Amino acid sequence: MSTISLDDVHAADTNYLVREAMTTGYQLFSLITPPAYVAFVIARRGRVAFSINRLLRATWVGGLSGTVVFGGWAYLRYAYSSAESARATRIKTAYNVLVVFAFTVISTLTIFFLKAAIIRRHDHATIGSILMAVLAPALLWRRASIVNC
Fold first, then answer.
1. pLDDT tens digits for 73-104?
2. 32-65 tens-digit pLDDT
3. Cα(104)–Cα(99) distance, rounded to whole angstroms?
4. Which of 25, 102, 117, 143 could form a disulfide with 66 if both were Cys (CB 3.0 to 4.6 A apart)?
5. How far apart are CA 78 and CA 112, in angstroms?
6. Burial per residue of 92-123, b for 16 or more beta-carbon CB atoms within 10 angstroms, e otherwise
7. Beta carbons within 10 angstroms of residue 74's beta carbon
């Protein structure tokens, strides 16, 4: 029978936390990039330089950048921290115990709803990505290149 060492547990915790951070980074940067890109292009080059193709490209490049930035930051943070702190963070993340709100909101009903927030966020992200994977090419069939849809 093999035993699981503390290093293996720390590696698994780090892996989980990095994946969660990468998902959050993709979601955040995919939301922030399109309005920032539109504002940048209109301010710098005017409306003539704006195109749907470039907006779609900026969206997926922004999401990829968020994945790399958040994943790298999380790896550096958790790989070089103690195994106990990484484990505590993983448990807080997995069960979504929001410490900031837990101290503010004492109601047990509200705390019950906060625990389901991360699952709801992942469900909404999955539903939105499936819908947009189908709708974006259908709506922008003639305007966007195949790489960006």
1. 999 999 999 999 999 888 888 776 554 444 44
2. 999 999 999 999 988 888 888 888 888 889 999 9
3. 9
4. 25
5. 28
6. ebeeeebeeeeeeeeeeeeeeeeeeebeeeee
7. 21
